[in-house]
Write a structure and sequence with these properties.
alpha+beta; Penicillin V Acylase, Chain A; eight-stranded antiparallel sheet; five-stranded antiparallel sheet; 6 helices; 19 strands
């Protein structure tokens, strides 16, 4: 699929009333040894995203798309090598990590974001929203550097009909921010909680958490009504009774916040990675629930197409997919970004879940 076909598909998914996934859920876990792990899902129920992992060496030259799908925008070269996971086009990196420990990812943000209008006079300083992650990972090592540099560029949408996105950015210091562009102006929010989903905006999502002040880990205390009738929970975890279970972004934000905050602290980054995948199991979205009368447009096993975890301290990027639930790892420390060649490789060589037969022997 070429870029114009992909953008048309995305735009139609936004415009038409047919249900679809634009659902991403991000969490953050901290290990006792000081490591930080950011993990997330990416969903798209309308078609397979044909995701790839891309390895980008130092010095690699890139250029941005501009509205209409032409490659005529800002040019840049990679100061830092990085590895990322792309969606549909290898240039469209949705999540990644560079060798300096900067992590960045985009999350769909429909109906609330708004980029500035593209101006031909700004062509050489204009970068497409779907390429902003690549630009950040190529050029910077800290959140503060990203913030300073963003003031000098123009973030534009390639197709005005398509959904906007917002971004999660984290660095080796443990600092994490959310970037939202509204009415053409960038807004950065410190994300100490470490959770991100989609619309509405991050400030609203944080405020909405107060509607769930009654939730807590463990079991609710039994008590008697005035007439002597005793009330008690049916099982463990009744302190979380009322946590929203649907797949809307506000409900996923609340659920992710409580699952993350009640998770036991792990000793190491690798244990946090495994815990992150376990937590995000709860956010897998079956394709069928989003389409009326089973009118599913694509033959894919899940709307959650892949899940990733990023160990920033140890420069390791982990992932699993809807086709293969085995966790795979890319170690950036094992890559010589001065010598490696650019490459883009499908996340799955075989698009089918492996089943291992257990041999039972006497």
């Amino acid at each position: 699929m070429n870029v114009k076909m992909f953008l048309g598909m995305m735009a139609m998914c936004v415009i038409l009333p047919l249900g679809k996934s634009e659902a991403c859920t991000g969490i953050t876990l901290h290990a006792k040894d000081g490591a930080t792990v950011v993990a997330r899902t990416i969903e798209w129920g309308g078609s397979e995203l044909n995701s790839q992992y891309v390895v980008v060496p130092r010095g690699y030259a890139q250029q941005s798309y501009v509205p209409g799908g032409e490659v005529r925008g800002m040019k840049w070269e990679a100061t830092y090598g990085y590895v990322g996971f792309s969606v549909e086009q290898k240039e469209f990196v949705a999540e990644g990590l560079n060798e300096a420990g900067l992590s960045a990812g985009l999350f769909y943000f429909p109906n609330y974001g708004g980029y500035e209008a593209y101006a031909e006079a700004n062509r050489e300083t204009s970068v497409a929203d779907l390429q902003l992650v690549s630009w950040m990972l190529s050029r910077f090592r800290t959140v503060e550097e990203v913030k300073a540099a963003l003031a000098e560029v123009h973030v534009v949408g390639i197709d005005p009909r398509a959904s906007t996105v917002h971004w999660r950015i984290a660095d080796a210091s443990g600092r994490q921010v959310v970037l939202e562009i509204v009415d053409g102006k960038p807004h950065f929010f410190e994300n100490e909680l470490g959770v991100l989903t989609n619309s509405p905006g991050f400030e609203w999502q944080m405020l909405n958490l107060n509607n769930y002040v009654n939730l807590y880990a463990g079991s609710a205390t039994s008590y008697e009504l005035a007439n002597g009738v005793k009330l008690s929970g049916f099982g463990a975890g009744s302190g979380m009774l009322g946590v929203p279970g649907d797949v809307t972004p506000p409900s996923r934000f609340v659920r992710a916040a409580f699952y993350q905050s009640t998770a036991p602290e792990q000793p190491t980054a690798e244990r946090c990675v495994l815990q992150g995948f376990q937590i995000l199991n709860n956010f897998d979205i079956p394709v069928g629930i989003e389409f009326a009368n089973r009118q599913v447009p694509a033959d894919i096993p899940s709307a959650t197409q892949w899940t990733s975890a990023t160990d920033i301290a140890n420069l390791r990027l982990y992932y699993r997919t809807m086709y293969n639930s085995a966790i795979r790892c890319i170690d950036l420390k094992a890559i010589d970004f001065e010598q490696v060649s650019y490459r883009a490789q499908s996340l799955d060589e075989v698009k089918e879940q492996p089943i291992v037969e257990v041999q039972v022997m006497d």
